[in-house]
Each structure stands twice: as structure tokens, then as C-alpha cells.
Amino acid sequence: SFYLHEQAGRYYFSTTPNLNRALAVRMDNLTPEQLAQAEWEALRQQVGGQKMKTFIWPGSSADIPDDEAPKLLIFREADPQQMQEFMRNKGQTPRVHRNTLFFLAPLPTDRARFDQLLRRHLAIAELKQQKTLVLTPEQRQTLERDAKQTERDLQEQLGHLYRQLYLPGANGLSDLDLGIPTHGVDQKLDVRAYERLRNEGRLVERLAPLVIKERYLANRDYVETQQLAESGSRAPGEMLAVSRQVWENAIAEGVRQGLFGLGELDEQGQPRCLYFNESPTVGLAGREVIIRAQVCKAQRVAQEHAAESGGVGIGYGGRQETNRAERTEDMPDESYSPVIGGSSKSAYANLRMSFDLPLGKVSSLLGLLNLLQKRFNALHITIEAKDGAMGEDELEDKVRETFRQMQIDPDISY
Question: Which residues on adjacent β-strands are paired with residue 105?
Fold first, then answer.
């Protein structure tokens, strides 16, 4: 057989095969199945799996775990409708942790260029394995050089192609472009997606305890820690901690700093503070709750008073004496009408009370004071203590210090 060759603008026939022609023929004869398999293999080399669980071209939502860990799903084509289906369901059951799925898809404008490069890469690999094809040493060297170059180009072009990232949100999916990868930097696809999600604030490796306080305890006395740990994974669009350890570390640090306390719900469903300004053991399970600092302070003060008087303290292993009406929250009651002032038919603009407080009833008084503060803009309290004694050290360390923590400057006379 003779093959047509071209050199320096002149054409001639030779028994040596034309390398370019041989490549073109093999590129044209590649099947879609061969191309898909080669693309999948190339993707597998571009996934490390160290940052996120990664799934290449998943076929069914049933194959994707429904847990709190972030997951990257790589689609061969951008299909928002199928992505939504994966978010909503795990097989035949509704998916619980919908905010853990992130999707990576090709940019359509780069598909043709990548497919052409992939065809050339496969054709070169076939020619190298062709034992019956007689090639000159120069042609063999050319094949070897082109094979290495197309392998490098293929991995680089994968980063150009697979760069459209889709994120779950409250109103559906949003997308962002990862951009063209930096030349010469070998960064896996899942790592690029992970770093972008982290920079966007969607994935967090560390939580500031102050954020927990302001975001979750601004208008409530306590929050169950298990709900906190699962909140990011369940609600699309929320920030997602990369692991439960992130929540454990942040809660423990917040308790040590005194930003909030850690405890549990008692039999009546009320928070009992167990750790405050100390190192806690965080479980993120059961009836464990984080508690507003004001509540923990009030419980400790009440416990100290009860211990001194022989009564029963609040929390710390003892029985909590308050009920839901006696919560020490300071947020406004949205159901309260200032005109009606509760369920009574008459409204009182001013109240004055005078009474003797029996021993062991401090915790009951806290609920009443909280109710009065909700109903009246000004609450003035006068305490007269007699028939006892208190040293200067105790007055300074316990009484004045308590007022300082509440940012109150009292008028104390002796």
C-alpha cells in the first residue's frame, strides 16, 4: 500500500503510513461510548475525595447518602431539574439533609474543544498500541511526545470544562463559575469546588462562638444543640459546617468564654445550666441545650442563695423550681397587647407591692419580675434585708459583682 505524504509543500507517495491521516481516521471512528468512558476515567483522576465525598455522573438519587456531610455531585450535563430531584429525594423517600448537595457541571461553550482533544488523545493511544502499523523512529517519537502532551492538556481542559457550580438555596439553585484554573497548579476538581464554597461562606471549617450567640440566642433562652448541628444541613442556603466537630468546638469555646451556657432540659422542658465559664463536654444529642448567659447567671445566683438558706437551687443537678411562665428571658412577648395588658378586663398603669420573701422562694420571684418588666417600661426594686449579717468581702464579691454583671449601679446603704 502507498500513502500520500506532504513535505515542504510537495506531495509524494510512500509505503510509510501518513501519521496525520491515520490519526484523523481513528478520531472519526471513535464511538460515543468510548468517549464517555474516557471522560469518566479522566474525571476520576481529577477527584481526590479528601475534602468532600464526590460522585461522578450519579445515576440515581438513591445512591447518594442522606447525612450531614457535604457532597459534590459531578454531572456530565447541567440539568437543574435533575439536580432538584436529587435534593428533594433519596430514592423513594424525601431527603432530610438537602443543603449538603453541591453540583458541578460542564460549561457548554467549552464542550466541543474538550471533545476534540479527547478524540485526539484516544486516537494517539490506539496508534501507539497498533503492532501492525509500520512507523519510522521519528513518527514513534512524535507519537510518544503527542501522547504525553495530550494527557497534560486533557487534565487541564477538564478544569476549563467542569467549572459551573450549582448551590442549593431557599428559592432554588444558584450557580457560579469557578473560573479558569491557574496554569501549572495541579488542583483537583473537588478541592477547587470546596475552596470556592468556603470562600463564599457556604462551607465553614470554624464557627465563631459570638455568631452562635447573636444568631441563635438573640430572641430565645435556649436552643437544642442537636438542632444547631443539623440546621445547616437541612435548610438550603444556610452555611454548612464541614463536620460536627466544628459545632462541638464552637460551643465549647463559647461556654468557656461565658457567651452562653450549656445544659439540658428538665422534666418540665425547662433549661438547666450545667456548664458556664468552664470547659464543658458537648454531645450534640438528646436534650442538651445551649442557654443564654443571663439565664445561667440567674440560675447560679439563685443556687447560691438557696444553698445559703438551705433551699433547693436551680440546675446543677438539683430540681429546677421554675415553670414556663417563669423563664428569665428578656425578649418582648409578641402576643402581649399593651392596651389590654393580659387577660384582665382593667388595665393598671402603676403597681406597688410590699411583701416579705420566704426562704427558698427566690426562683419563684424571678418569673414574676420578668412578667412585670414585660408589662411596664420602668421597674424599680427596693430590697431591705434584716435580721442577719454579711461581711464586706461577701458584699463585694457576690452582691456588687452580680450587679456589675447586669450593668446596674445600685444605691446600697448600710
Answer: 164
